[in-house]
Amino acid sequence: MSISEFRRKKLLYVFNVFFDVNQSGTIERKDFEIAIEKVCSLRGWKPGDAKHTETHEIMIKIWDGLRKRADSNKDGQVSVDEWVSMWNDYALNPSAALKWQQLYCHFMFQLEDASADGSIDCDEFTTVCSSYGIDPKECKMAFTKMAKGKANVSWEEFQELWKEYFSTEDPNAAGNFIFGRTSF
C-alpha cells in the first residue's frame, strides 16, 4: 500500500515534533530520555517522585516496543522510512494496534488530562501541545476541530481519533487534529 503525501506529512509531523526530540533525523533512546524530562518538567514531577518514575517506565516501554517493531535494520534507531512503513502497516488494521502503540495513545491522553477527570478540555490540550512549540492559537483551533465543537474529549473518543489520525486520508477528519496542528 502506497502512502499519500497527506498521510506522509502527518506521520513526519509526529516523528519530528513528538519523537525525534533532539532533531537528529532518527528516533533513538536518547530522544525518549529527553522527552521524559520535558514531560516531567511540564507537570512539575521531580526525579524520585512516583509520577516521574512511572513516566520513565512507560516511555522506555514505548521506546522498546517502537524499536522492536520499526527498527528493521537493527541499528538502534528508527529512520523516517522505518517510521512511515510501520504506520502504513498500522493503517491496514488500526484496531490491531501493537501494545506500545496502545500505551503511547494512553500516555498522551493521560498527559493531556491534567485534571484526571477522564476527559481532555481545550486548556489541557493546549498546555501540552504548545509545550512542543505549537502556537497556542493553533492548538485551540485544533482542539475545536478535534472535539467537533464540544467542550471535552473522552478517552473513548480519543482512541477513535487516534486511530483516525494514523490511518485516514480525509484532510477534514477530526482525528487529524489530535497533535495540535490544523493543517499539513
From TrEMBL:
Any coiled-coil ranges, and where? none
Q: What is this protein called?
A: Calexcitin-1
Q: Which CDD domains match?
A: EFh (cd00051)
Domain EF-hand positions: 68-93, 100-135
Q: Which InterPro entries match?
A: EF-hand-dom_pair, EF_Hand_1_Ca_BS, EF_hand_dom
Which SUPFAM superfamilies does this entry report, sorted A to Z? EF-hand
Origin superkingdom: Eukaryota
**Molecular-function GO terms, alphabetical:** calcium ion binding
Please give the Pfam families that the UniProt record associates with this protein: EF-hand_5
Protein encoded by which gene:
LOC106117226
Q: Do you know which Gene3D superfamilies this protein is assigned to?
A: EF-hand
| Record keywords | Calcium
